[in-house]
Amino acid sequence: MSQETIPQLTAFDVAALDRSFGELLRSVQQEAARMVSADDREKFRLYWLGRKQGRLKSIGEAWLKTAPVEAKKAIGQRFNQLKEQIEQALDAGSPSVAARAAGRSAGPISDALDITLPGIRPGLGAEHPLIKTLHEVVGIFERMGYSVGIGPEVETDYYNFESLNFPPNHPARDTQDTLVVAGQEKKPLRERLLLRTHTSPVQIRTMEQQPPPLRIVIPGKVHRNDAADATHSPIFHQVEGLCVDTNITFSDLKGTLDHAMKELFGSSVKTRFFPSFFPFTEPSADVQISCIFCSGKGCRKCKHSGWIELLGCGMVDPAVFGFVREKQSAYDPKKISGFAFGMGIDRIAMMKYGISDIGLLYSGDMRFLEQFA
Amino acid sequence: MRILSQWLRAYMPTLAVSDRQLADDLTLRGIAVEGVFDLPASDLGATHGSLFDMDITTNRVDAMNHYGIAREAAAIYNVPLLPLDESLPQAKPTSAPRIAIRIEAPDLCGRFTARVLRKVTIAPSAAEVAGRFALLEQKQISNAVDATNFVVQAMGHPTHAFDLDKVEGAIVVRRARDGERLKLLDGTERTLVADDLVVADERKALALAGVMGGWETMITPETKNILVEAAWFDPASVRRSSRRHGLHTDASHRFERGADFAAPPIASAMVCRLILAAGGELEGEMLDVIVPEQAARTLHRPVVQLALHDVTRILGRTEEAHPLDAATIERYLTALGCRMKKSSDAGTLSVELPSWRLDLERDIDLIEEIARLHGYNRFANTLPAFSGSVVELPHASQERTVRRKLLAAGYTETVFSTFCSADDAATFAPQGHSSVPLGNPLSEEAGHLRPSLLPGMLAMLAHNLNHGVDNVRLFEMGTVFHGNTDRVQERPSLAIGATGNILASAHTAARGYSFYDIKGIVEELLAGFSFASLAFAPIENAAAWLHPGRAARIVLDGHTLGYFGQLAEAESTQRKLKQPVFVGELDLALLFRHVLRLPAIQPLSRFPAVTRDFSFIFSDAVRWEQIAASLTALGITAMRPLEALEIFRDAKGKTVPQGSYSLLVRTVFQSQERTLRDEEIQGWAEQVMAALAQLGGVLRDGATAPG
After folding, report:
1. Which of A220, B10, B128, B543 lies deepest, with the highest CB count within 10 Å?
2. Any idea what the CATH number is for the domain that residue A227 is in?
3. pLDDT tens for residues B292-329?
4. What is the pTM of this model?
């Protein structure tokens, strides 16, 4: 690469610029192709990009000097472009790249890093397994056309029990089972305040606000006066669902939950339904899924039955529609029907992630939570 | 409840399925068999079948006995069910006056039957009873007592045997007198109230009706004459007495769930036959007093009209080609004990309900029975059509933004208890709000509904520090509660808590979490929302839990959104926190009134930006807020947002005097329209320096603004 004379630029139209810059680029490419060693690279760099006598600078100054004002901008832009191309050629021609391309050993690299050391992780926060599971379940039903609803955690006896067809002396109403707000004794039963024991009150609240057709999925925190152990917590989470229309049947309930369980646990999961009892549904059912740990063969997790009980559901009891009709006359049990279901999110999360102590979910323990990051 | 498969089969001699199949089929029809245990064969090699461990739902009191379960099985398999054996030896006619029975509380006792047995022999039970009790591991007492227990196992109706010689005069079923005392079979003496129902004689109470017999008339080895009671008591009354006295017995369990009004004569006959097997005679016919109003409520309930069309409307499609037809439906209902009455309409069944199924009242109850007996899993899986739209919660996207930002910034989400102690509630309740106490708290530390998420956040930080986790960043989004016991207000809230170091790695030095970190995350969160003004004010007298000099009140469009900063020394000491802790709480209800900021894109300037840095020394009294305000007040439109590039204090006072700090301010000038001229930039730089000097700033030596 000897010092050469500087070519002249005489015409400044687009075509002339294309030609002149094209020639420059070709000589850059020819020179680049001859680079082998690190030394070659340095020579190439100085020849073209040297700060004082670099060829690009010399040609640039010469051409810009003679150029008319209106062409200067275009020429400047082309020089920038050419500079980039030279730099690219330099990078591509770096010895390691060239050596790799040629299939040769690269030899030791003086500025190499120990790439096996851990990277600098920015430290993301971890999603809480309950919230994550809650969103997952809600998402499944949203995709099936369910809107999302929520309701208060402190409820009246009316919404938590009476309107859901619990008889006045039902055991669930006992303070042994339900946490209550202080000082309620003098109020009429239906106005007494308590911590909701399930998300079902939101069914009633929603129906009172909205005539059918209705599809709603209700996530939320609920409370019971339970002693805490590895599988019970006085605080837990539920997702409730309600679907009401003119033509909703028990087989729709089956199909809906079967689909939802397949979405949640995988398409090979089977469901089976058997009779149960809830005051606010009739017929009522418990739903089992085939054990996700042993695929139904029987293991410790499913107590060797091959099945795991996961949720409760049923057709909305006409008596519940009866309560709602006081505010929304369209809920006539002779004309419409519906189904409702509810599931414990804590249990699902525990199953999904193999958590054996429910208390961990409410501990704020980083050693536990960061495993979900 | 324990059930013997052999006993079930005694009522269904033609049943051909195995015990395990039977258990499965019962379970799938709601008569849950939780466990099946093979019983050891007898010495002679005869099989005893299996023991079923059953869990019968509370609404199915009729199935809490062998005959009831056999009825279900017979209905499932469509096999004949033998009737119960009510046979009795011929009664001895008597010339003596019969014992009188008076029901003085007809609202609580609907039926009372009595049979009198004379010259009985009290002895251990005979083989029929003893053998089955052994398999059930039920304690044997004597043939008379065992007979009543056996009949409960057999067909579910509780009865009671009195030593007739201890009964004085007539049998009176009446309310107890307030304060009346009665010694029961368990040896305890109870004080009764007027709401308790007793079986009494003319002088004294003999038994707490439907719950437990009395001590005085108990069967003893000396007993010669027996009165066998078989009655029907009001469920609610039995439940109240059972609760009041803390006595949950086999009898109360069944009566309080609704016994069969037609059963007393049958139960009585079965008990009498078992006792008489060891000797003795039946005196006279059964005495039977019936309260007609109660019989109407149970025995003669109105016929239920079941529209066949409603069966399909509610249940939908079955998996078989044939839908549920009228004949199948009739067969199911008949097998359960319903009787079909003449119906005027071919599409409707008129159904008379069995006396033992008080849980059946309405057409929907019958539809459930049909679905149950058919088998839930024989219904198809279908998906309903729907023509609505899906609506998210109003604040869903705002909540998502907050959660996403916090997670991305390295804060881990938590969920904590809804409750806190009264002390914590008082400390952390926002000004002007009170907290709500619980009536039956789980513990004293959980006596109030949390008025703030911070007690929980501090507990979680402490938990981590106590378990050797020193670097923690957490957040919780949850409900807080304010108000009083008449009215509880719920608000969504966000708590942030952090302690320890951030960014520690093999390649970078650790850096302690500081006030500016928590302020930074608050700023990041708020940057996602639209608002007109945001300020961080001193906390003054509010939020006493915060360090007064290292805490701020967030003022968003003039409203207090929350507080954050370093935890006050006193709180930190009290909680034994070994290192500085930073916490904050934001009122999400208030924040969510602000919509998410929709980015309004500024075109990228095509002209060069010019940077000018200024290094000044200021007294500690001069705050960044003043500096920023005075430079903004210059009104230089080409000046882009200021940056406090570096703040330096010299503890020794060598380079920067004590009580002062050195500040490097970066200004950037750029125009959207043109390249800025050197002279105008120089002019602005001078303005900036003048403004900084006006605030008492002194230009640092050798740090003149680059020209």
Report:
1. B543
2. 3.30.930.10
3. 999 988 889 999 999 999 999 999 999 887 778 999 99
4. 0.82
The verdict on a CB contact (< 8 Å) between B413 and A259 is no
Contact across the interface for B316 and A251, Cβ inside 8 Å: yes
The backbone region for B500, taken as left when phi is positive above 0, alpha when psi lies in -120 to 50, beta otherwise, is left
Angstroms from B282 CA to nearest CA on chain A: 42
- Non-local (6+) Cβ contacts of B49 within 8 A are B4, B5, B6, B9, B19, B39
Q: Please identify every stretch of chain A with a pLDDT value under 70, giving residue numbers as ranges.
A: 1-4, 93-107
B218-249 per-residue burial string, b: 16 or more CB within 10 A, e: under 16: bbeeebebbbbbbbbbbbebbbbbbeebebeb
Domain boundary assignment for chain B: 2-77, 101-298, 305-378, 396-591, 610-699
Contact B137/B154 with Cβ under 8 angstroms?
A: no
Same domain for A177 and A96: no
B589-598 pLDDT, tens digit per residue, is 999 999 999 9
Chain B residue with Cα closest to A275? B30
Cα–Cα distance for residue pair B98/B100, rounded to 1 Å: 6
Q: What is the pLDDT of residue B705?
A: 44
A182/B384 CB distance under 8 A? no
pLDDT tens column, B438-490: 999 999 999 999 999 999 999 999 999 999 999 999 999 999 999 999 999 99
Task: Looking at the complex, report in whole angstroms how far the Cα of residue A96 sits from the nearest Cα belonging to chain B.
Answer: 26
**Cβ-nearest to A362 among B316, B417, B457:** B417
Count of pairs with CB atoms under 8 A, one residue in A, one in B: 247
Residues of A in contact with B407 (CB under 8 A): 124-127
Shared domain for A292 and A347, answered yes or no, is yes
Cβ of A148 within 8 Å of Cβ of B414? The answer is no
Say whether B305-378 and B2-77 share the same fold: yes
Residue B428, phi then psi, degrees to nearest 5? -105, -10
Q: Is residue A107 part of a domain?
A: no
Interface contact flag, B413 A315, Cβ < 8 Å = no
Q: Are A233 and A359 in contact (CB under 8 A)?
A: yes
Is the CB of B464 less than 8 angstroms away from the CB of A365? yes
Nearest C-alpha of chain A: how many angstroms from B403?
9
Q: Among all residues of chain B, which has the CA nearest to that of A317?
A: B364
pLDDT in tens, B205-237: 999 999 999 999 999 999 999 999 999 999 999
Q: Which two tokens stand for residue B199?
A: 């079986």
Residues A86 and A159 placed together within one structural domain of the fold: no
